[in-house]
Amino acid sequence: MIELVSRDRCVSCDICVKVCPTQVFDPGLDGVPVIARQEDCQTCFMCEAYCPADALYVAPDADHPVQVEESALIAAGKLGKYRASLGWGTGRVSTAQQDDSYRILALSERLAPKKAAAASHPSAPA
Amino acid sequence: MPPPSAFDASPAPRPGNEADALQLDADVLVLGGGPAGTWAAISAAAGGARVILADKGWCGASGATAPSGTGVWYVPPQPELREEARASRESLGGFLSERLWMDRVLDRTYANMAQIAEWGYPFPVDEEGKQARRSLQGPEYMRLMRRQVIAAGVRILDHSPALELLSDDHGVAGAAGIERRSGRRWRVKANAVVIATGGCAFLSKALGCDVLTGDGGLMAAEVGADFSGMEFSNAYGISPAFASVTKTAFYRYATFYHGDGRVLEGAGSAKGRSIIARTLLSEPVFAQLDQAHEGLRESLRKSQPNFFLPFDKAGIDPLTQRFPVTMRLEGTVRGTGGIRLANAECATGVPGLYAAGDAATRELICGGFTGGGSHNAAWAMSSGYWAGGGAAAHARSLGASAATRTPKGAGRAALRSAGGERTLDHHAVVKAVQDEVFPYDRNLFRSTAKLNDSLGRLDQVWQQVQDHPADTVRDLVRGREAAAMTATARWMYTTARERRETRGMHKHEDFHDQDPSQRRRLVTSGIDVISVRAESGSGPVQAPAQLAGAAP
After folding, report:
1. A23 CB contacts (<8 Å, ≥6 apart)?
2. Is the Cβ of A74 closer than 8 Å to some Cβ of chain B?
3. For the CA atoms of B506, B509, B515, B519, what is the dihedral angle to 10 degrees?
4. Which of A41, A104, A110 to substitute to test the interface with B, most B CBs within 10 Å?
5. Is the predicted ipTM greater than 0.85, yes or no?
6. N or C: which end of chain B has fewer CB within 10 A?
7. End-to-end alpha-carbon separation of chain B, Å?
8. B76 pLDDT exceeds 50?
């Protein structure tokens, strides 16, 4: 669940308020968005992907809030990691073009030959 | 503490109080902004329609696809490849799919993926220098789709859940809902509506699925639409026990373990999922992706950044370390049941109402077993494309603008009280429904006794959602979601009770085998009183003449 809006990093663009599909954030009076409905967070990480300042941290725990320490997260390089892995942000290139799914699919098809197809001919008993 | 937003605190205007509502009209209104909804909106606009798209969340981030990554059922038009693709899932699906529909979806998907490439999606390039179009990265795909929807001239209403359809003597005529942040009601009159609100995952926190609460199904049922395949609604995705990322496909490389390190024999992500579920009933289960050989590991990471995200954050290497797993209900999102389709344009049989994506039945291509994300992705872009085109044509055929119509709201449960004093407690309703549909030994392993038992309680829950809707915007939306989940659960179990066999994903403890005499789809109707009938003939949805004439 969402655990952190970094006051140091936030640029008050309110993009997280806008893109969150479950309305977890409210605009803050001082410009820094507030986590207003943490229990509605579905841990989809979309806010992290869209945050241009890498100011957000969504903990991996989907069911329970956890304590996080901003300095520790920064030291571990955990802020902005998802956005980087998508290749989103100025100067980056979308990693969609490195998507290796086709290789994985081809490999799994070679490993599992056409057994399934043969067994499922329409004339097979229903 | 910040001041509470309107969403939490402001009284929700009652239905019918439309003085302050945002009043709009369009030719086509699309409900839902995931893959199916965005394709529908673009297709309707291409058909010359004025289109509005309303999403409960934010079109581009909302739904199961955006935070994920998905394979696509993309098969080049070579006869032997197509034959293999059609045949590969027929047996798993219990022979309830239709080859005509598979062909149409394969053709449409092939064309739509070319369109996506033309729009600039950065497909990877294979060894032969050709684009590999067999998968889509969710965030990139849906960001692109939002841009294309806007470029097509479609007006988007974000954070604007629809609460009910509008209808008059000519059929469906739009929808009404609420803008969550401001609390402002909206009311869009339209000559055709496409329901693309996704399936129902019962707030299980499966990745991206908490906006998928079956709302469109309830709205469609309230104007008389039928459902098909609602017994095939018990898909569970494997995820780390602590996390939301239900990416079951990668668990094909997993070995599953007991807590003491012994291998859990027979467990697997495909056929062996039942063993995992049965074991989870009494003890934790652990997994490690230790079957992924060295050459594959980097490919896994590159193909699904989101899969590794919770592990990286938790400091676990899933390839070399064991981690606890769970199975989260994906319900009808990964099931195949949904709104029944009446023809090749994805019309529902209710004039002016169309359905696409996971809101609609996917039995036509998958039968009774999920084809996985790849089939759903192909279905979403194909059915969305057809539904949008069909809706635009319908709107055109009516001639007069929807602005001249005077429709009424068709919503009932959790919107308009049936009387009495009590206020709806949506938390209690959601919990009660989850208690019936989450447990593996109820929903995954079914029996007549357990289904009767659950339905008895769900009938009582259905009475609860007739209470007065609560006063705030948030509670109103949540109450309506709770009603939709209750209705979905009742359709699921009522239909499951009528399939007295094991077929597709429907596993029946009283009837372990597939029964050849029950090889037909089941059609479910009604809300307060639910009825189930066998679809007559082998394929009434085929409408062969229409299919032959329709563009692929």
Report:
1. A37, A40, B7, B57, B159, B180, B181
2. no
3. -20
4. A104
5. yes
6. N
7. 56
8. yes
* Closest-CA residue of chain A to B93: A120
Which residues from chain B sit within 8 angstroms of residue A126, using beta carbons? 94-95, 514, 516, 519
pLDDT in tens, B108-152: 999 999 999 999 999 999 999 999 999 999 999 999 999 999 999
Confidence class for position A114, pLDDT limits 50, 70, 90:
very low
pLDDT score, position A110: 75
The CATH class, in words, for B237-329 is: alpha beta
Pick one of 3.60.21.10, 1.10.645.10, 1.10.10.60, 1.20.58.100 as the CATH number of B426-515. 1.20.58.100
Q: Confirm or reject contact between B84 and chain A (CB < 8 A).
A: yes
| Res A79 pLDDT > 80 | yes
Residues of chain B with CATH 1.20.58.100: 426-515
Which pLDDT value is given to residue B416? 84
Measured CA angle at B262 (ends B256, A108), to 5 deg: 30
Give the pLDDT of residue B88. 87
Residues 246-305 of chain B whose Cβ lies under 8 A from any Cβ of chain A? 252, 296, 298-300, 302-305
Answer whether A81 touches B (CB < 8 Å).
Answer: yes
pLDDT of residue B546: 39
Query: What percentage of chain B exceeds 70 in pLDDT?
Result: 93
Whole-number average pLDDT of chain B: 92
A:B CB pairs within 8 Å: 186
If you measure CA to CA, which chain A residue comes closest to B85? A117
Mutate to test the interface with A, among B302, B316, B431 (most CBs of A within 10 A): B302
**Does B441 touch chain A if contact means CB atoms closer than 8 Å?**
no
Radius of gyration of chain B (CA): 22
Fold that domain B22-234+335-407 belongs to in CATH: FAD/NAD(P)-binding domain (3.50.50)
Q: What domains sit in chain A, N to C, each tagged with a CATH number?
A: 2-116 (3.30.70.20)
Place of tokens 């024999």: B265
A 36-65 → B contacts, CB under 8 A? 36-37, 40, 42-46, 49-50, 59-63
Cβ of B158 and A103 within 8 Å? no
Phi, psi of B78 (to 5 degrees): -105, 130
Under a CB-based contact definition with an 8 Å cutoff, are residues B327 and B440 in contact? Answer: yes
Q: Which residue of A has its CA nearest to B302?
A: A99
User: Would you call B134 and A63 a contact, using CB atoms and an 8 Å cutoff?
Assistant: no
